[in-house]
Structure formats: C-alpha cells, structure tokens
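Quiz preparation item.
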C-alpha cells in the first residue's frame, strides 16, 4: 500500500510541475505581447531609407598602415594618444596584395622554412 501511495504522490507532483510550466509559458507569452504593444510600429514605405542619388556605396579595397605611436619618455595612457586611444590608420604606399613568403602557409604547423 505504501508503494501505491508513493506513486500517487509522484503523479500528483508531476501534474503540479506541468501546470507550473504551462503557467510560466502563458505568463511569458502575455508579457511578450505587452512589450510588443509598447514598441513603435514598423516604418511605413515612405519612411524607409533610400539609395543615394549617385547610386549604391561601393566597397573600398585598400591596404592600410597603422599610425605611429608618439615617442615619450614615460608611459602613455590611452586618453593621451591621438584620436582618444583609437588606433588610427592611413592608406599604405604599396597597394599591391600582400603574399606569404614561399614555403609557408602563414599558420602554425604549415611546414614553413624552419620545418614547423
């Protein structure tokens, strides 16, 4: 008889757990609907962005070089660097495509000149 009572309690516990999960899912759906109602509506067709008059913007493919870090006798912090610590770049003199040296693939274990 104790076994039957244990199974009944287990079944009741699982049913309660299932109801809790269903209640949480319904609550999440209701909360999501409320958040969605507060969001602005999607833009109308006349509010969409348009292409520039001179056509689409094209990708610029060029090699870049880093700007030099200013020399100083003491250590510089990022806010003391030009452009607030962001590393600046400029166009490279050589716009040719860089190639790996012969015999190497550029990654570890690629069988380069030193056999690595």
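Solution:
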């Amino acid at each position: 008889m104790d076994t039957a009572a244990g199974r009944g309690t287990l079944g009741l516990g699982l049913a309660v757990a299932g109801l809790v999960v269903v209640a949480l899912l319904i609550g999440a759906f209701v909360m999501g609907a409320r958040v969605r109602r507060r969001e602005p509506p999607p833009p109308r067709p006349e509010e969409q962005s348009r292409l520039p008059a001179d056509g689409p913007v094209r990708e610029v493919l060029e090699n870049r070089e880093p700007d030099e870090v200013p020399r100083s006798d003491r250590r510089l912090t990022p806010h003391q660097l030009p452009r607030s610590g962001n590393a600046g770049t400029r166009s490279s003199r050589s716009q040719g495509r860089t190639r790996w040296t012969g015999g190497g693939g550029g990654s570890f274990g690629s069988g380069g000149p030193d056999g690595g």
